[in-house]
Task: structure prediction
Amino acid sequence: MRIDPDPGGSELQLLGQYLDYERETVLLKSDGLSGEQFVQKLQPSDLTLGGLLYHLALVEEYWMEVRFLGRPERDPWVGVDWDTDPNWEFRTAADFSTLAWTFSDPGRQMELDARRIGEFIVLAGSSAGKKVEKKLPGAGATWNQLFQIGMGPIVLSGKAELKFCSIGTEGPGELKMGKFTATRENEEKILLGGKEIAAVHLRVSLSGLLSIFWHGDYWYRQSDGRFLRFRGKNRPGGPEAVLELVGENAHDGN
Result:
């Protein structure tokens, strides 16, 4: 809830009140938007709302914590080479790269935590009762652990192909960084919830010759890149699964 700053307050009070007012304004404008809407570019600019939010978070943490309080930089900012990639926060928000990821499978005694730190993806935790501690290559690659969300940019951009990497949790690629390719198959109409929706069909597969071992088909709404349907195997050799969007929150745009 936004509260107007008190013009009669002290300098310190006004600073805090104005900052709170601006924070609440950003949250108000962002509330209820889908992930795809956060990465949608408003031409002719490449700026996205996700990039703007990420930039604001970076500036606030840098000034309030690092400069004023003398605290060390925190993830995900630590290790970023700002000289070679000055727009890092805008770029990573716009391509929906994963920055941090946790995974839990109590049945296999698997608890994982991965974070992008500089040019590496640092993976830690345990699997089958054994300690996991790895540095996986991540330089120059989009890291995506949630295909349903991370494919929005390719849908909206019209690109024919997107290459990315993802950490495996089962099979031969378990605890390894796998290379994947998302290919734009075609545009088609699908029935979902009794309604016909214009969709973009993507096929996601392991890259290169490994594509014979696994692929999955994904459909996204053509207008905003929202995930609609997945059909395929959740793991190589597993049963076929179908996932569909069953509902979404309305947003009035105010």
The beta strands are 100-105, 110-117, 120-127, 130-137, 161-167, 177-192, 195-206, 215-221, 227-233, 240-244. The two ends are 14 Å apart (CA to CA). The chain has a mean pLDDT of 84.
